[in-house]
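Lecture 7 notes: from sequence to structure.
We start with the chain below.
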Amino acid sequence: MAFTETDVQSAMKQLTDPNTKKDFVAGKSVKNIKVSGNDVTLDILLGYPAKSVWGEIRTLVENHLRAALPGAVKVEANVSSKVVPHGVQRGVKLVDGVKNIIAVASGKGGVGKSTTAVNLALALAAEGAKVGMLDADIYGPSQPTMLGISGQPQSADGQSIQPMEGHGLQAMSIGFMLDADDAPMIWRGPMATQALDQLLRQTRWEGLDYLIVDLPPGTGDIQLTLAQKVPVTGAVIVTTPQDIALMDAKKGLKMFEKVDIKILGIVENMSTHICSKCGHEEHIFGAGGGEKMCADYGTEFLGSLPLDIRIREQADSGKPTVVADPDGKIAKEYKQIARRIAVKVAEMAQDHSAVFPKIVVQNT
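Predicted structure tokens for the same chain:
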């Protein structure tokens, strides 16, 4: 029985992408449909990195089309991903070499924000994206230790600096500039904010799909500078379940809303404690706080992570969980959250500024 490209398109409207929860046609993922006799080939171009599930999606599409197209002899789907730039706050200058900037923030310290940020960055990289990490915690930089990077960055031209590299991430931190690990940053607010701007714009980022910015806790000068000068695609709030942490997380969420930065969702860290002796799991900080906050503020609950000694040990050793135990249960949870963040970014309005030519007016 003969079928056409239109039949293939119609069939794909009936199949839902398990990551976006939209059909593949509505998600604009179906490309290059070709029908030759009883054979069909097509491309599935995902707007988010998902290398670990390309095979699953290919099998899903091919099986669906074989069932939906009677008489189909050969069905072949080629699955790949392409990340594009998405919209940011109005009037903020874009950063060369960076498509999307994702801020990871918390209302208070001690909730595991930096550990979450580095694992999410590594998870996006594991899914095939090109990722950078900017340690914006000027007073307490921790990313050099977590990424196992030592030494100082180089400058070839005296104007810009090359990012450091760790576990496949391009990284920059004020910690790379310090002579000793215990050297304090005794700076007033304006100096710290200027340092952040220089770290961001004087680093030669190379073709990043995502730059993860690990913010200091709170809603002070650094956060305000980020909102006013850094082109942020979206923000992720990290909290723990107890009331005090949630109260501060709500302040951080409201701050981003007021400066027109989209909230991608909330990650609940230390959601449950897992005993290293017996494996017993217990809600020692309370249960359901992050989900309730999401319901109250109309944002998405991205996922929860356990309070597990291995997460701390691995980050302290310079090999965070996603690279130390890539196939483990906790790494899979980080990857699921990272993929959901990437899907949320992909659903946002695209930035088309690069499409338009620059107009130069000259007197002749």
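Points to note: The first helix runs from residue 5 to 12. The chain has two domains: 5-81, 98-346.
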